[in-house]
Amino acid sequence: MKTTAKLLLTVTLMSLAVILKAQDASPLAEAREAIARYEYSKAIELLDKALESAKDASEIRDLSLQKARCQKKMLRYDAAAETLASVMKPGALDVEVAGELADCHVLSGRLDDALGLYTILSMQHPDNLYFSIQKASLLFKVNDFRGCAEDGKAICAKDSIPSILSLIGASALKMGQIDTALTYYRKSLRLNPSNPNTAVSIANILLGKKDYDGTISLAKGFIEEVEENLTLTQILGVAYYLK
Questions:
Q1: Strand, coil or helix: what is 92?
Q2: Are 119 and 135 in contact (CB under 8 A)?
Q3: Total-model pTM
Q4: Helix (H, G, I), strand (E, B), or coil: what is residue 89?
Q5: Which regions of the chain are under pLDDT 50?
Q6: Which H or E run includes 121?
């Protein structure tokens, strides 16, 4: 009897092992292994196989998201956008899918489409700073400098982010608001004093305003305290010459 029991236990365990191995060898499991090895092309093929047998809407969504992310890794942004669009439902905005789709549009240069999605996302989730930041950045890229400045100020009212302060400064500069631009660039530099791009922007504004002493003070101070910078060195030389 003991021998029979042992035999049955062995058979059961072997069957379990076979089942587990078969599960591990599923297209989804293999796709995950391929992703871990950065073999995104293979992962896409395996995810397509998994999608062929998937029937549940939630499962199809999750597989499509994984596939789109792999397509993005392979720089196939239009294909990724098609994959994501296929699981978007009218009237119900899936935040994760919409966010991935908006990112695809940015990467493929479809800025208006991306802006439209990020505008909707930021309206539905006003406390989500990521969506607001993406929207503000896109407004600048499509030359809506007034909108960019307004959105940037709303973001900074919640969290003072140096790059957003610089974005407001750049927008103001594009609109010819020199003093406003200088104010925001200086705020940005105070929060991130080692950023050479912000220092260069301020120095150029001061040079344009013929504030040579201010230009020299800023450029010289940055070069001495932070690091050598070719552009600032050139601006410094021009300021000394003009003075």
A1: strand
A2: yes
A3: 0.83
A4: strand
A5: 1, 9, 11, 13, 16-24
A6: helix 111-124
